[in-house]
Amino acid sequence: MNTKPTEQDVQPCTLIPRLKEILPWIGKSPVKKLHFEQGNLFVKLESYNHSGSVKDWAAYYIILKAIEAGHIHEDTIVVESSSGNFAIALAYICRKLGLTFIPVIDPNVNRDYETILHMLCSKVVKVRKRDAKGGYLLTRIETVKEICRKYKNSFWTNQYENENNYKAYYYGLGPEIGTQFDRLDYAFIAVSTCGTITGLSMRLKELYPSIVIVAVDVEGSVIFGTPPGPRLVPGIGAGKVPENLRFAHIDEVMHVSQSELVEGCHKMMKDQLILSGGSTGALYFAIHKYFKHKTTEPSANILFISPDGGKAYLDTIYNPQWYSKL
Ligand SMILES: Cc1ncc(COP(=O)(O)O)c(C=O)c1O
Fold this sequence. Notes:
Elements lengths: L6 H4 L4 H6 L10 E4 L5 E6 L9 H14 L8 E5 L3 H13 L2 E6 L5 H10 L4 E2 L10 H14 L3 E3 L6 H18 L5 E5 L4 H13 L4 E7 L33 E5 L1 H15 L5 H15 L8 E6 L13 H4 L3
Parallel strand pairs: 2-10, 3-4, 3-6, 4-5, 7-8, 7-10, 8-9
Antiparallel strand pairs: 1-2
Helix pairs in contact: 3-4, 3-7, 4-5, 7-8, 9-10
The site of pyridoxal-5'-phosphate has 19 residues, from helix 4 and helix 8.
């Protein structure tokens, strides 16, 4: 057997230096103090990240760790079941690295996001067959597995089960918040894959031991054991319990309905002049409900993470024809 290294073997991997060029574009998102009577309410606007959402943290860290572990090489095909912010974040990063990325999406994809994915990815797979539960999640996962079987050089980022999803927030966003606040009493965090809440709750409890972590979910999501139901707004909620959740430190859970979420988005726009995505509206609604019945010190510091901005939701959450049918 010839064990002499080939020219390809001795080529230095350029993926990591190229990936690190993106780092200055992730994080350092602004924190705004909002008008609120029951305490000092702050929002951290993650829409200021490179691809427009909080998912840049997870995409960056998952890809970095996969390269370091030798799971991603220059010729790897990255695959993920997502039509939302995670797919967009991966599409930007893979394009930057020259890696092929195949997002597996379904007919519920936001039109603008589908356009962006087609611009950045040579192949986008759209499933159309509903699964046994009436949704598309299981069909999408099955399709991802088929693609991985077909291409031996593929890598599934698997955001629901990949521990580097929550570690991205433990090592990234969490310490950044630590530099922005001397004291925090409450953090309200929206949930889907539970990467954000798991990593942040671990880090924030270390930094602020008496902080109260409130998870905000949407009705119809099964994450906290409530029955499944239709969910029309992407980004918040899940049809299965994410693996990562078992490491989270959550003190309270709140559920909002789809129409409360929409109300929260419109209220946020009117009160604070911030056009935000659906999960931010859910958080804003939940915070008002929570503090309506709770007296807290006027000096309490309350933070919520706004995962994305509202422009992608103009056809839905901000469109009266759409939301009047809820
Ligand atoms: C708009 C929006 N809000 C909230 C979340 C929830 O974040 P996580 O998946 O880390 O629970 C996501 C995740 O994709 C999102 O896109």
